[in-house]
Design a protein that fits this description.
The complex is a heterodimer of chains A (426) and B (369).
Chain A: H1 2-30, E1 44-51, H2 58-61, H3 64-77, E2 85-92, H4 97-110, E3 115-117, H5 122-126, H6 129-134, E4 139-142, E5 158-160, H7 165-179, E6 185-190, H8 193-206, E7 213-216, H9 224-232, E8 237-241, H10 244-256, E9 262-265, H11 272-279, E10 290-293, H12 304-316, H13 324-343, H14 349-358, E11 381-388, E12 391-400, E13 409-411
Chain B: H1 28-49, H2 52-77, H3 85-105, H4 112-136, H5 141-161, H6 163-166, E1 172-173, H7 189-213, H8 215-225, H9 227-232, H10 237-263, E2 265-266, H11 273-286, H12 291-314, H13 319-344, H14 348-368
Antiparallel strand pairs in B: 1-2
The chains are: A alpha/beta (426), B mainly alpha (369).
Chain lengths: 426, 369
Amino acid sequence: MRRIARRGLAIATSITLLLSAAACGGNDGGSAGRGPVPGVTDTEVVVGTHMPLTGPASAGYSKIAPATKAYFDYVNANGGVHGRKITYKVMDDGYNPANTQQVVRQLVLQDKVFAVLNGLGTPTHSGVLDFLHTNRVPDLFVASGSRSWDQPDRYPNTFGFNPDYTVEGKILAHHVKTTLPGKKVCFLGQNDDFGRDSLAGVEKVLGGPVVARQDYVVSNTNVAPQIGALKAAGCEVVVLATVPGFTALSIGTAARLGFRPQWVVSNVGADHPTLAKQLGDAAGLLDGMVGINYLPMQNDTTNPWIQLFTKVNRDHNGNAPFDGNTVYGMAVGYLFVQVLLAAGRDLTRESLTEAVRKGGYQGPGLAPLRFSATDHSGYGGGRLTRVSGGVQAYFGPAYETDEGDGAVNEYTAPAVAPPANGVPTT
Amino acid sequence: MSATGVAAPPATRAPRPEGRPEGRRVPTLLRHLGLAAVAASALLAVSYGLEPFRNFQLATVAAYLCATAGLTILTGLNGQLSLGHGALMAVGAYTVALTQDAFADRGRTGGGLLVVSLVAAVATSVAVGAVVGVAAARLRGPYLAGVTLAVAVVVPALTVTFDGVLNGEQGLPVPVAPPPAALGPYFPYERWQLWVAGSATLLCLVLLANLVRSRYGRTFRAVRDDEIAARLAGIHVARTQVLAFVVSAAGAGLGGALLAVLAQSVSPGAFSLTLSLFLLMAVVIGGLGRLAGALWGAALLVALPDLTHTLTDLLTLSPAAAQRLEGNLPLAIFGSTLVVVMIAAPGGVQGLLSRLARTLRDRWRAGRR
């Protein structure tokens, strides 16, 4: 019986501990005097996100959330939105879908965020789509160009931000087709929807399969076999659908193998400061790289948006190195503030998503934002960039297209200037 | 009668403690069932008292508990080391994903099908465990560690090799039926998840606890303590080791399957080598050789990331430093916890608790005298 007594004691202790832990956990949610809408009080609105602050995709991407937060701090310092300050909870998921599951549940169920904003990554975010949907959480401006976010019937509360990877692939292939005709075009992409959607766009415009295609997985940082295969296939143009770490890796590996094709890189992996930092002394390899973007170029100091964001970065982000990720993070913050304003003073989850569906938003972007009741994709195009002499700059016109068979057209609408104090008013 | 084909050796039968009349002992199975019933009702009560997120965390503890309990049997009771249990969890998880997907494709989503999928997951991981176990039974020490390490590395990589079926690193969704309509339309999904994971885990624990107290449990321990002595006593050592591996693989498979059901998706990133190492560290910290130790280990696996997040929240750091810290702190904390536990309480948390209980009881007895 002694053993039973001992075991009983052990079990009793564990149950007590569990219960006390639970009791502690229960307390931290209630006392804030929350209204019926999760994460919203008269003075505060709490939103959350999941980001790869560490791990294989953190290069560059880890700077997005701090930039968004800095813009929110700037807005808060200017009185907030409808008198509410924005609190941004950033959770690290290390670009691992299993971690995303945990941290998003923590954000929604425990921290009771009002909305999830700009959750980053195709594999990571697709794992929480159903969870967010069943909990009716607005899932705004996902930081990925997967077409999964544009399913208004299935996920009415989910909206993208980036151009679809297919849209991007079509514009990149349009450039290749018109300026580099007859060249052998090859493709290296991430082994998921990112790579697949991008390749679909490229092949749609090229009118047939690429000469060689390879893919990589984020957990394996050796791309020498893939690059070797592309070299062996005699590729002259290589389209990359890669995250920044793997763009740098591919270009560096190719140089070591004595392979110098024309690189044409997807938006998410084409930010020059990020890549140059990764490559270090070998940053010169980036010269001639063609990329695509849809936000003002971070080195264009004459652009009023860049002037605004530089100021915010200096005052609220510890003057962190300013690159495309900073611009991206702040552009997301600006759009969210616009949407929050449009949702009105009586903020509910329904009024927020309704405000996004209404559409008509304009900000720093060079391409149209297409939100409507039937379209939940983000930006609808972009403009090509080229690195020369270590400086990345736009060239040519901006383009827009769709994810289907539509043509690639020039987009000529004039750019808008930011409001005087940098905070949207209507 | 003997499944291992070994004649019951008198030497391995635990000697009856003296002065304890045999007639007063409650049969082992009944006692374990009783404990399980108590635990089940406690869990039921707790599930109503807790917030959804805590329910989800508790369900995750339950899922990990299956795996750590299995590993406790293997490492603590049988003395075999495995660095590959995370991979065995992946086998269970992917089996559930594939079977649930197959059911969903045929338009069947009933709750009973989940039981079928879970059984299939256990069966598959048993099969894989048997293969690894046969290899493991021939190897000792670093060689055994090497083979299981290979399993931990190879299995997640297979998902990329066969990405047509397993969808590479993006992984697969796991369609799971909503809670039964009888529970009402607003029944929290996380409470249902706790019920599912909790009942599967309790069943698994009852079976394992019974095994530990049975003749097989004694042969496991005999092989661990001295293989030659065990062989002299007529125990088929290799067979016992394979059996132990298979049993622990079943636990790991069930754990992985439950984890996949909870997350409603599987991906290789969830079952990396780190997970295998974490599992081993968790059972060592919890207390090797006792199933109760597996509970502490599982709780630690869930509590740790939460803890580090709270910790980094408390410290006011520059954003960059906080980022660096949050990703790496869990590893550092786990490592230092392991070191501290090994120095201060070599028996793990459970060893410490039993020692504490013993001291208290002795004091109490001395006071009565």
